[in-house]
Specification:
Shape: globular
Order of helices and strands: EHHEEEHHHEEHEEEHH
Strand content: 15-25%
Number of domains: 2
Helix content: 55-70%
Structural class: alpha+beta
Oligomer: single chain
Length: 299
């Protein structure tokens, strides 16, 4: 975080910038939102159409093109969702008198797209609307279309990616909601500048710096969630590769204690993970974190 400046009419009282600690939290919470949104889409589809929402990669024999289409969708849907998300941000900026600009960048080794309106000050409530407009509009539009067209199951992935990808917008909107209504906000590529009347003090703002212990916890949480996200990615990509090379069915482990099953038979092909033993990985990491914490206290 940047240090707080002296409060004047022309200077920001606080500048919120993305740093490694916040990026780590956003990643962890974004993955949690991904999981919750996936569960929500599954429940929504089941309630509306009375059948399961298909999320795995399973194809019929000699129909490898279906799996390849899923693979292409795995790449194309996120990119398209991010582009539309930022365009909606831009429309929202323009609706409140801003001049939107778009761009892409890399932060902490991760690529990102952005929409911004430099130099324009927005009211607190207007900026909250700007932050949340893509989340609300894109999700609602896709849910309505998914309810009308049950065969367009890919719309569920748009909702999931849009929701989890909006974690930064949700985070900043939550902070702004806790700020005094009299503040104004200037959007910046990697954060926002808060301007306030002289009567507003820095202690009236909800921005706080977190300590190293919290960072350690979020590091563990992020690594655990990234592990399960990796499994999801593998479940999409690995079946395509295995089928292309006509790999026969196999099991990683034993019949009683297995981790992964690859099935390739007359009914089709697919990959399944056994989550019970895989849960041991984050549990062991948590135990290691607790042991380290206790050891540090005794030193």
């Amino acid at each position: 975080m940047l240090p707080m400046t002296k409060v004047t009419r022309n200077q920001p009282i606080y500048v919120f910038r993305l740093n490694p600690n916040i990026a780590l939290r956003w990643t962890s919470l974004g993955i949690l939102l991904f999981i919750l949104a996936t569960a929500g889409i599954s429940a929504f589809y089941q309630a509306i159409h009375g059948q399961s929402w298909t999320t795995g990669v399973v194809a019929q024999p000699n129909r490898i093109w279906r799996a390849i289409l899923v693979f292409l969708g795995f790449i194309g849907i996120p990119i398209g969702t991010f582009i539309v998300h930022e365009l909606v941000h831009g429309f929202a900026f323009a609706a409140f008198g801003g001049s939107p600009r778009y761009g892409i960048g890399i932060k902490y080794l991760l690529p990102y797209a952005y929409a911004t309106s430099p130099g324009k000050h927005f009211s607190r409530n207007a900026f909250i609307v700007i932050l949340l407009t893509p989340l609300v509009i894109i999700d609602l539009a896709c849910l309505v279309l998914l309810a009308i067209f049950p065969q367009a199951t890919w719309l569920g992935w748009v909702v999931i990616i849009n929701t989890s990808g909006a974690i930064g917008d949700i985070w900043m909107a939550t902070l702004l909601w806790r700020c005094p209504p009299s503040i104004t906000v200037e959007d910046r590529t990697e954060g926002m500048a808060i301007y306030a009347p002289v009567a507003v003090q820095t202690q009236d703002l909800p921005f706080r710096t977190t300590g190293s212990k919290t960072f350690t916890f979020w590091t563990w949480l992020n690594m655990s969630l990234m592990f399960f996200m990796l499994l999801i990615v593998i479940s999409f990509l690995l079946p395509v590769v295995l089928e292309i090379f006509h790999v026969p069915s196999f099991v990683v482990g034993t019949d009683d204690l297995w981790i992964l099953r690859w099935e390739n038979n007359a009914r089709g092909f697919g990959i399944v993970f056994n989550l019970l033993p895989l849960l041991l990985v984050p549990v062991i990491g948590l135990l290691g974190l607790l042991v380290k914490s206790v050891s540090n206290r005794h030193q």
